[in-house]
Amino acid sequence: MSRVAARVLPPAATVALLLAGWIAVTAGGAVPAYVIPSPQAVVTALVDNWGDVLASATWLTGAETLAGIGLGTAVAVGMAVASGYLAVIGRALTPLLIASQAIPTVVIGPLLTIALGYGMSPKVIVVALLCFFPVALNLMAGIHDVDHRLIDTMRTLHAGRSALLWRVRIPAAAPRGFAGLRVAVTFAPVAAVFAEYTGSTNGIGYLMLQAIPRLATDLVFAQVIVLTAMSGLLLGAVTLIERLACPWNVTEGHS
């Protein structure tokens, strides 16, 4: 079996099995359509509503997601670099790192909406808060867990604090930072939807709130498919960027 087939066939088989199970459950009307719609009904809802409402909602949720990922990643990288220069900064900011995850989204979302209104800003901040933690935690751990033999070798070459950070610690920590970013981008679209639940006039979360009381579960499932595709595209983009930015981390088995 070729390497491409070995990578593509297992997930394709999983998707095929799930689709077959979905068809089997919904065939014959054993389950009401308003509980689990058939795949055909979901595809029809996706196509029929794409031009009217889904496209604009997808673009808005996608923009909120990308902006939140960018903001959360930028803050996480800044915090990790600062802790790399001075470890005490990392220790001082640890309570903020924990607090960013301790506050539930259902609490912080409405508060941000009250403070900032119904625009994109509250959603972007919610996504940034949820993306910030895994990236910052992995980067900071990678920066401080560098092999001390590398540090000692660089010091024998009279490397200063800045050279150690940018030539040893950051390159060593980058793969772990990308690992955290891969985790973050998979749930970032869902975080944007939760933020839209707290107050919005467009977006996938807003459409879901409109569809659920009408029992339009085919439209809800269509939006879930859009969110899944969004997460998959983001995960693929991060994986590609990681391979370009960290070619030393691409092993034979990982490629």
From TrEMBL:
Q: Which InterPro entries does the record associate with it?
A: MetI-like, MetI-like_sf
Its localization reads: Cell membrane
Q: Which family does it belong to?
A: Belongs to the binding-protein-dependent transport system permease family.
What PROSITE patterns does this protein's entry cite? Answer: ABC_TM1 (PS50928)
**Can you supply one Gene Ontology CC term for this chain's record?**
plasma membrane
Name of this protein = Riboflavin transport system permease protein RibX
Provide the alphabetized UniProt keywords.
Cell membrane, Membrane, Transmembrane, Transmembrane helix, Transport
Q: How does it sit in the membrane?
A: Multi-pass membrane protein
Q: Where is the ABC transmembrane type-1 domain?
A: 54-242
What is the scientific name of the source organism?
Answer: Acidipropionibacterium virtanenii
- The protein's predominant localisation is membrane
Q: Mark the transmembrane ranges.
A: 65-89, 96-118, 124-146, 179-199, 219-241
